[in-house]
């Protein structure tokens, strides 16, 4: 009795070792083919379950077909002697067997190749066919093979020798994946009930691993598709940006050609008149018109030149208050004429690293817009550090911006001013974006507008 108990303990320990070793090998990979090979090796390796041959079939639920996915083992007794002789000489441990690359053997040996060629239509199998019942009833069969007396598909019978055969379902957590088949052909060692139990436990491990592998591979494929889609979207976006830039450049070219043409035609016409005129008073009058048209042309060209400001030029540490004072001095007469009160709240030590001409252009445009929107009132200019940004605020009590215009004010050529180019805020927003900053504009009609500029310190 003691001996029997000791034997049972040894057998139980061995079986636990087998399950642990095989499960560990299966869980270490998401490669579907490797999982199949490890399972088949575990079923047939001499140091594991020691069956002669094994095969795994998949079940396609939509097409209702059972098809051979992979097999392992000899086709006949001659090949059995060769394979087992080679394995005996290698003297591999179970762990080494499970890690052994079987790709070459499985690709060339006859039994695995024949398994992969099998396709069985489930609907054409009789009701009592064991393969059909495994799929439909989820049953396990332990059969003694006498070819003409068992209910199996003809494709399977042709591969069988006079031996014992086990067939059982291969499950995922949600559904049946297929069938595991194993036999004891050529060595005819009896298939014990304990072996069938181990096969069923291995089947559960394999089913879960295959489900995880299939899900992992599907996610990897979807991730790759998303990555490719992202790349495509990125390329399309770059193309759209390029086309948008070209479109904007085209519009600007047409616009400026039109705007420049008018003063040039006027200047040309009055220049001809001056050349023919003798009356000094008329010459002075026409010369004054030519001068005004020249100033208008200069203004257009100055606007055009601001597009060179959209990329940083000479970066240096600049004092913000110095730039504000320079701009305020420029508008001094306009402030006095319109009775505009200017309030400046900027610490003397606030500075930033930027291209001075660009920052001047930004602030000049904002203050100029405030001045143009007012007949009288107050402009407040303030600045301070907010997190990692320098926040500059220009706030006025002017007429404000209609809500329907607010989303469009940074678009090129959008202007509500008479004779306006619609480029000021477009240039401002582009300069700020190039520095990694942002522009915020809020406005209430008849109450005023607040512009916040955020620039990295």
Mean pLDDT: 81
Classified by CATH, the class of the largest domain is Alpha Beta
The total of helices stands at 14
**Ends distance:** 86 Å
Query: What structural category arises from helix and sheet content?
Result: alpha+beta
What's the gyration radius in Å?
Answer: 43 Å
CATH homologous superfamily grouping of the largest domain: GAF domain
Topology-level CATH name of the largest domain:
Beta-Lactamase
From the coordinates shown, what is the CATH architecture of the largest domain?
2-Layer Sandwich
**Proportion of strand residues:** 15-25%
Poorly predicted parts: none
Percent range of helical residues? 40-55%
Report the count of strand segments: 13
**Biggest sheet overview:** 6 strands, antiparallel
Which descriptor suits the 3D outline? Answer: elongated
| Helix-strand string | HHEEHHHHEHEHEEHHEHHEEHEEHEE
What is the count of distinct domains?
2
Q: What is the strand arrangement across the widest sheet?
A: 3-2-1-6-5-4
Can you describe what's shown?
The chain is elongated. It has helices at residues 2-27, 32-44, 77-90, 94-99, 103-108, 110-116, 130-137, 154-157, 193-276, 280-305, 320-330, 332-338, 356-372, 424-434; strands spanning 53-60, 65-72, 119-121, 141-144, 164-171, 176-183, 315-319, 340-345, 351-355, 377-386, 389-396, 438-444, 448-456. The protein is an alpha+beta fold. It has two domains: 2-221, Beta-Lactamase; 311-456, Heat Shock Protein 90, CATH 3.30.565.10. Strands 3-2-1-6-5-4 form a six-stranded antiparallel beta sheet, with helices on both faces. Strands 8-10-11-13-12 form a five-stranded mixed beta sheet. Helix 13 packs antiparallel against helix 14 (424-434). It is 53% helix and 19% strand. A hairpin with a 4-residue loop joins strand 1 (53-60) and strand 2 (65-72). The chain starts with a helix and ends with a strand.
